[in-house]
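hiii, so i know i said id send this last week but things got crazy w the move. better late than never?? heres the sequnce for the chain we talked about at the cafe, plus the structure i predicted for it. fair warning i was half asleep when i ran it
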Amino acid sequence: MHETYLHEFLAQIRVDIEPIVTAIGPVGDALYLPFRIVGGSIARCELISPVVCGVDSAVLFPDEVFVHDGRFVVRDADGDILFSYQGTSQAPEGTYDRALDGTMPGPIPIRMCVQLKSTNVAWRRHNRGSLMGIGSFDAASGHVRAALHALL
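okay and structure toks below
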């Protein structure tokens, strides 16, 4: 069964990442890939707000599934915004083995649930709302890009 959701486009997210260390593990069967969020932006209409800092903790499993957990802060003159996200990516076959050897994966699709906290008038109505991001995770070039939508 195919479900349809009403949604509102909110912003385009670009997060710049760099590895903190090489892959940790395997611990059990999981590889832990911690990333420092070093920049980026949130583009909404004609407004662009910079990403100032954060972290993305990615866990890679032998079946090539990534589980992401990230948080970052966006600076805005009307009130800073704390974004947090959790999501999954399905990497191509062989990604797990290449990560064991220190090779970061190239662009792969990502789907994530997003939450935010802000006193910013333009964003605070979404503080407890259902938000989703759809885009790509590219550890090799150091980017996470996603379109942010509010589910209505």
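btw The helical segments are 95-100. thought thatd interest u
miss u guys!!
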